[in-house]
Design goal:
Keywords: Coiled coil. By secondary structure, this protein is α/β, with parallel strands linked by helices. The chain is built from 14 helices and 15 strands. It has three domains: 79 residues, Orthogonal Bundle (Arc Repressor Mutant, subunit A), CATH 1.10.10; 134 residues, 2-Layer Sandwich (Nucleotidyltransferase, domain 5), CATH 3.30.420; 174 residues, Nucleotidyltransferase, domain 5 (2-Layer Sandwich). Helices cover 43% and strands 17% of the residues. Helix 7 crosses helix 14.
């Protein structure tokens, strides 16, 4: 074949040695894309292919501009071995980050470099049929504007809120159209493979594949924003649970007879430690006459800006805003201490708007953990803030494709 479009129908026209060789190329591309540049011996060991066959396959992939040499690895005696990696233009991936009120879309090359501007669309998530059409129009617009051959778009990853069954491509909260899975509907209308994942799980994949949790096996990623999301990588795999809904940390009751949560229960973690709660505390304090520079923003009509301003005020030294974050962090620490004692993670990564407050949130979280978690367990768990900042959602969507796309193609080639 003269291309590497991963087209199932074309590949299934092959037979025997030719088809086997092509599938081997896909497996090599998967390893190089997900794990980074490798030496020939590393690839042989990883994929159980003999050295002569590996050299032949790599040579073919270099000729097709799928793979290129990326420098040299460490020598174990003799000359340094060549490192092979995927070429940046061998394929592309689209990332779609859906929030409740806005959707962001961008395209990345095979080396995870963004090649288009992030396009932002004001789309409110719900279950209306025209909402799906607006999303399809936005995705097709970005693809058309990029000028890329659509067949070289390996797949589309979608990070979104809601109760999501990622295996079957169903969101039970948003874009729920009965028996028709939203991932299948998008794939049918766009013509490329589509994978959906809960936003917190997608962020956990981003940290595990591309971020500060790379090479870790047991990691919790906390998405601290309007709500609280939790993604869990356990024994090196994203943990979904039996129904795909694992990680509903925000709806664990923490306060006896507390405030009513949007899930219908009283005193959930979300009611004492989310961005929504912080905003309510800030507004109440201002209304009660607390001395605070937050008064300057009291007339704002945009909740998003107000929440950012609470954090901004705390970072500027506003004592009332600092106290709000302190109380929030200690409540989070109490809840996280339960997770630490149950799961014994080596790393906890914080992301989202609240993580932008840095030590003003991490310090009280650590204090809450120190108060409620066993010393022998908590001392082996590190807490860090994500390096991705506001781009964590886009990288999460990108990582969703990384996690699924090659296995989908390889499975389809056997049919």
């Amino acid at each position: 074949m003269n291309n590497f479009h991963f087209e199932t129908e074309l590949v299934n026209q092959l037979a025997g040695v030719e088809k086997k060789r092509y599938v081997q190329q896909v497996r090599i591309a998967k390893v190089l894309y997900i794990e980074g540049p490798q030496t020939t011996s590393q690839l042989c060991k990883r994929l159980k292919i003999s050295a002569p066959n590996m050299m032949t396959i790599l040579s073919e992939m270099v000729d097709k501009n799928i793979v290129e040499k990326k420098g040299q690895g460490e020598s174990i005696g003799g000359r340094k071995p060549d490192l092979y990696g995927v070429t940046s233009n061998s394929f592309y991936v689209m990332a779609v980050e859906m929030g409740i009120y806005k959707t962001q879309i961008a395209i990345y090359d095979a080396n995870n470099q963004q090649i288009t501007e992030v396009e932002e669309y004001s789309i409110e998530l719900n279950n209306a049929e025209d909402t799906l059409e607006h999303i399809v129009e936005a995705i097709n617009s970005v693809i058309d504007k990029s000028g890329l051959n659509r067949k070289k778009l390996l797949g589309i990853g979608v990070s979104m809120p809601g109760l999501i069954d990622s295996v079957n491509g169903i969101n039970h909260t948003y874009l729920n159209y009965g028996e028709a899975a939203v991932a299948d509907l998008l794939e049918e209308k766009i013509g490329r493979p589509v994978f959906i994942e809960n936003d917190a799980n997608a962020m956990a994949l981003a940290e595990y594949r591309l971020g500060c949790a790379k090479d870790k096996k047991n990691v919790l990623v906390m998405y601290l924003d309007w709500g609280i999301g939790l993604g869990m990588v356990l024994d090196g795999k994203l943990y979904h649970g039996a129904s795909g809904f694992a990680g509903e940390f925000s709806h664990i009751p923490m306060v006896e007879n507390g405030h009513l949560c949007r899930c219908g229960k009283l005193g959930c973690m979300e009611t004492v430690s989310s961005g929504t709660t912080i905003l309510e505390m800030a507004k109440k304090g201002v209304a009660d006459g607390k001395t605070s520079i937050l008064l300057e923003n009291n007339g704002s009509s945009t909740n998003f800006k107000v929440l950012k301003n609470v954090i901004k005020a705390a970072l500027a030294g506003d004592q009332y805003a600092i106290n709000i974050l302190d109380e929030t962090g200690k409540n989070l620490g109490k809840g996280i201490s339960i997770l630490i004692q149950l799961l014994n993670p080596e790393l906890i990564v914080l992301c989202g708007k609240l993580a932008d407050s840095g030590e003003l949130i991490t310090t009280p979280i650590q204090q809450g953990i120190n108060t409620h978690a066993m010393k022998q367990i908590r001392e082996r768990t590190n807490i860090v803030v994500s390096n991705f900042g506001s781009e964590i959602g886009m990288y999460g969507a990108l990582a969703v494709v990384m996690e699924n796309i090659f296995d989908k193609y390889i499975a389809s080639y056997g049919k």
